[in-house]
Protein backbone atom coordinates (compact mmCIF):
# COMPACT_ATOMS: atom_id res chain seq x y z
CA UNK A 1 0.00 0.00 0.00
CA UNK A 2 1.25 3.36 -0.99
CA UNK A 3 0.37 6.34 1.16
CA UNK A 4 -0.21 9.63 -0.62
CA UNK A 5 2.51 12.08 0.21
CA UNK A 6 1.42 15.15 2.18
CA UNK A 7 3.79 18.08 1.85
CA UNK A 8 5.31 19.21 5.10
CA UNK A 9 4.53 22.63 6.58
CA UNK A 10 8.02 23.84 5.76
CA UNK A 11 7.62 22.86 2.15
CA UNK A 12 4.31 24.77 1.92
CA UNK A 13 5.78 27.88 3.55
CA UNK A 14 8.86 27.75 1.38
CA UNK A 15 6.82 27.46 -1.82
CA UNK A 16 6.37 30.83 -3.40
CA UNK A 17 3.20 32.09 -4.96
CA UNK A 18 3.86 32.58 -8.67
CA UNK A 19 1.29 35.41 -8.84
CA UNK A 20 2.99 37.23 -5.96
CA UNK A 21 6.33 36.80 -7.70
CA UNK A 22 4.81 38.41 -10.77
CA UNK A 23 3.57 41.30 -8.60
CA UNK A 24 -0.08 40.27 -8.67
CA UNK A 25 -2.24 39.87 -5.57
CA UNK A 26 -5.83 39.12 -4.65
CA UNK A 27 -7.72 41.62 -2.48
CA UNK A 28 -10.40 40.86 0.12
CA UNK A 29 -12.99 40.62 -2.67
CA UNK A 30 -10.77 38.18 -4.57
CA UNK A 31 -10.10 40.77 -7.27
CA UNK A 32 -6.72 40.60 -8.92
CA UNK A 33 -4.58 43.62 -8.00
CA UNK A 34 -1.14 44.82 -9.01
CA UNK A 35 -0.33 46.33 -5.61
CA UNK A 36 0.13 44.33 -2.46
CA UNK A 37 -2.86 44.73 -0.11
CA UNK A 38 -0.74 46.55 2.50
CA UNK A 39 0.65 48.97 -0.10
CA UNK A 40 -2.84 49.54 -1.49
CA UNK A 41 -4.19 50.28 2.01
CA UNK A 42 -1.32 52.64 2.79
CA UNK A 43 -1.87 54.37 -0.56
CA UNK A 44 -5.55 54.87 0.25
CA UNK A 45 -4.67 56.23 3.71
CA UNK A 46 -2.12 58.59 2.19
CA UNK A 47 -4.69 59.77 -0.35
CA UNK A 48 -7.17 60.54 2.45
CA UNK A 49 -4.49 62.36 4.44
CA UNK A 50 -3.57 64.39 1.35
CA UNK A 51 -7.22 65.33 0.78
CA UNK A 52 -7.50 66.43 4.42
CA UNK A 53 -4.29 68.43 4.05
CA UNK A 54 -5.56 70.13 0.89
CA UNK A 55 -8.83 70.99 2.68
CA UNK A 56 -6.90 72.46 5.61
CA UNK A 57 -4.68 74.47 3.25
CA UNK A 58 -7.83 75.82 1.58
CA UNK A 59 -9.24 76.86 4.97
CA UNK A 60 -5.91 78.44 5.87
CA UNK A 61 -5.88 80.40 2.60
CA UNK A 62 -9.40 81.71 3.32
CA UNK A 63 -8.38 82.80 6.82
CA UNK A 64 -5.19 84.46 5.58
CA UNK A 65 -7.11 86.11 2.73
CA UNK A 66 -9.57 87.57 5.24
CA UNK A 67 -6.71 88.75 7.43
CA UNK A 68 -4.98 90.42 4.48
CA UNK A 69 -8.21 92.20 3.53
CA UNK A 70 -8.63 93.39 7.12
CA UNK A 71 -5.05 94.66 7.34
CA UNK A 72 -5.41 96.45 3.98
CA UNK A 73 -8.62 98.08 5.19
CA UNK A 74 -6.96 99.19 8.42
CA UNK A 75 -3.98 100.56 6.49
CA UNK A 76 -6.30 102.61 4.26
CA UNK A 77 -8.12 103.98 7.31
CA UNK A 78 -4.80 104.83 8.99
CA UNK A 79 -3.62 106.61 5.83
CA UNK A 80 -6.86 108.58 5.64
CA UNK A 81 -6.53 109.65 9.29
CA UNK A 82 -2.88 110.57 8.75
CA UNK A 83 -3.86 112.81 5.83
CA UNK A 84 -6.57 114.49 7.93
CA UNK A 85 -4.14 115.10 10.80
CA UNK A 86 -1.51 116.44 8.41
CA UNK A 87 -4.00 118.81 6.88
CA UNK A 88 -5.13 119.98 10.30
CA UNK A 89 -1.53 120.55 11.46
CA UNK A 90 -0.76 122.50 8.28
CA UNK A 91 -3.74 124.81 8.90
CA UNK A 92 -2.72 125.21 12.54
CA UNK A 93 0.88 125.97 11.52
CA UNK A 94 -0.27 128.61 9.04
CA UNK A 95 -2.49 130.17 11.71
CA UNK A 96 0.43 130.27 14.15
CA UNK A 97 2.67 131.84 11.49
CA UNK A 98 0.03 134.56 11.04
CA UNK A 99 -0.12 135.16 14.81
CA UNK A 100 3.68 135.28 14.95
CA UNK A 101 3.79 137.80 12.10
CA UNK A 102 1.17 139.95 13.84
CA UNK A 103 3.07 139.80 17.13
CA UNK A 104 6.37 140.66 15.39
CA UNK A 105 4.69 143.61 13.69
CA UNK A 106 3.24 144.75 17.04
CA UNK A 107 6.70 144.50 18.65
CA UNK A 108 8.26 146.45 15.76
CA UNK A 109 5.58 149.15 16.07
CA UNK A 110 6.05 149.28 19.83
CA UNK A 111 9.83 149.70 19.44
CA UNK A 112 9.38 152.44 16.81
CA UNK A 113 7.04 154.41 19.10
CA UNK A 114 9.67 154.70 21.84
From TrEMBL:
Subcellular localization(s) per the UniProt record: Cell projection, Cilium
Keyword entries, A-Z: Cell projection, Coiled coil
InterPro entries, per database record: FT20
Taxonomy, superkingdom: Eukaryota
Single GO BP term: cilium assembly
KW Cell inner membrane (keyword) present: no
Main location: other
Coiled coil, from the record: none
GO cellular component: centrosome; ciliary basal body; ciliary base; cytoplasm; intraciliary transport particle; neuron projection; non-motile cilium
Stated name of the protein: Intraflagellar transport protein 20 homolog
Organism placement in taxonomy: Eukaryota, Metazoa, Chordata, Craniata, Vertebrata
